Amino acid sequence: MSLDADSIVDRRRLKRRLMVWRALAVVAFAAVGIALVGDVDGLPGTDHVARLYVSNVIVEDTHRQTALEELRDDDSVRALIVHIDSPGGSVVGGESLYRAIREVSEEKPVVVTMGTLATSAGYMVAIGGDHLIAHEGSVTGSIGVLLQSANITGLLDKIGVKPEIIKSGPLKAQPNPLEVTTPEARQAIKDVILDMQEMFTTLVKERRKLTSDELKKVSDGRIFSGRQALELGLVDELGGEKQARAWLAETRNVPESLDVRDVVIDYGEEKWRRLVNGYIGKTLFSKRLSLDGLVSLWQPVAW
User: Which of 26, 73, 221, 226 lies at 20 to 30 Å from 37 by C-alpha?
Assistant: First the structure.
């Protein structure tokens, strides 16, 4: 009888020990999880500075728009750093991202840092920020709009091919590689390009507070180094993220001690397609863009 009582006591002790070890295991896992979160992004809901990377060819992106809307309304986001390393992209892509950044700026400070490239639509996006910072060797500017096409009618004549084109009007589907561009068609296309160029330069003039003469110097499509851009009023400062944090602390009361967290954009099933597109050559990708809309893209010959 005494043996049975001892067994019962031992079992109870064993159960208590197991419960203690289980509780310790739960606490340990929780501590590890908190540590990992703290190392990567800090605790959710704590004040921080958000960082958005804009790279490769810029196209319209509703997922990125949504992410910007969410951080705009997130009180724990004290400021936004936009890092741009892009040769440009479609006019609509640049315009839509510019306006999304301006909406964020209405609620919290936005500072832009430039990497190797921030040209064409990339610069359009940049001027959405409150303060622009470039490295001395950054390449920016290339303020302009272009539409590229090719005329292969001479080649078709040589190989004995004559295209048949039936359309509703003489200006439909212009420019068209299969027919010679008429003066009327060329002028119609030029009018559209100049109208979009006026939109672009108006944004630059307003955001950078340039005079008409100053604007004329920078809006002929040429590129500028970061040092030249500073002299011409296209950027506010030379440096990188360190200078961005200093500016936020000195002028917008955003402590430099706050964590910086990258903006995570949820593309869902589109993630792999976008990853592949990111590695497609800029020249090849820009050909598809020319079918969808006008392009604001710096295209060096050696690229």
Answer: 73
CB of 65 closer than 8 Å to CB of 35:
no
Let me know if residue 195 belongs to a domain: no
Question: Residue 8: inside a domain, yes or no?
Answer: yes
* Domains of the chain: total: 2
**pLDDT tens track, the chain, 303 positions:** 455 665 665 666 666 666 766 766 666 666 555 544 444 455 567 999 999 999 999 999 999 999 999 999 999 999 999 999 999 999 999 999 999 999 999 999 999 999 999 999 999 999 999 999 999 999 999 998 888 888 898 998 999 999 888 989 988 888 888 898 899 999 999 999 999 999 999 999 999 999 999 999 999 999 999 999 999 999 999 999 999 999 999 999 999 999 999 999 988 765 555 555 554 444 444 444 444 455 666 555 433
Which of the following is catalytic: 86, 96, 120, 138? Answer: 120
Q: For residue 70, give both structure tokens.
A: 């969410």
Residue 163 located in a structural domain: no
Q: CATH code at 113?
A: 3.90.226.10
Identify whether 15 is a catalytic site residue: no
To the query of whether residue 105 is one of the catalytic residues in this protein, the response is no
Given the residues 167, 172, 242, 271, the one annotated as active site: 172
Q: Which domain holds residue 63?
A: 47-147+219-297
User: Which segments within 27-156 are labelled E, that is strand?
Assistant: 48-58, 77-90, 110-119, 131-134, 139-141
C-alpha to C-alpha distance for 101 and 143, rounded to whole angstroms: 19
Q: Are residues 118 and 74 in the same domain?
A: yes
